[in-house]
Design goal:
- The protein is mainly α and 143 residues long.
- Helix content is 83%, strand content 0%.
- The protein contains five helices and no strands.
- Helix 1 packs antiparallel against helix 2, helix 1 packs parallel to helix 3 and helix 1 packs parallel to helix 5.
- The termini are far apart.
- The model has no long low-confidence stretch (mean pLDDT 90).
Length: 143
């Protein structure tokens, strides 16, 4: 249970950090890069959170799906908003899809710390690449 709580905190903080960086560098981000960043953040954050919530709310797919989808909607919207409305829409739709898939996976697998660690590693890797994309497109290549 402690690993799940730590994982949820990591997802929320890392997603917030990328949203913050996107806002900070919004003048230099183009449409396609913004769409990719918003889609990545929306999908991965809601997928990872959905798996974690599916493990916590074992017998209730409804609560884990709703929370994960709403989080993905928000993350996708706020990541894409500084770039364009199309980037926001792309991020929100990816957040819906990731939230539903993640919650289903978490409920179906049950308490599987191997899968939780695997999802966390994938989340960290993909979000790190998205952060590199933000920095590269903004002309700041030190990250």
């Amino acid at each position: 249970m402690l690993l799940t709580i730590f994982s949820m905190a990591m997802v929320i903080l890392f997603s917030g950090y990328i949203v913050f960086n996107t806002y900070k560098r919004k003048e230099k981000l183009t449409g396609m890069a913004g769409m990719m960043i918003a889609m990545t953040v929306g999908m991965m954050s809601s997928l990872a959170l959905g798996v974690q919530l599916g493990i916590v709310f074992q017998r209730d797919l409804t609560i884990s799906s709703i929370i994960a989808v709403l989080f993905g909607l928000g993350a996708g919207y706020f990541t894409g908003k500084p770039v364009s409305i199309m980037a926001s829409l792309d991020g929100m739709l990816a957040g819906i899809m990731g939230g539903m898939m993640g919650a289903m996976l978490g409920v179906m697998l049950g308490v599987s710390y191997t899968m939780l660690l695997f999802i966390n590693l994938i989340f960290i890797f993909i979000m790190s690449v998205a952060l590199q994309l933000v920095n590269q497109k903004a002309g700041n290549t030190q990250a």
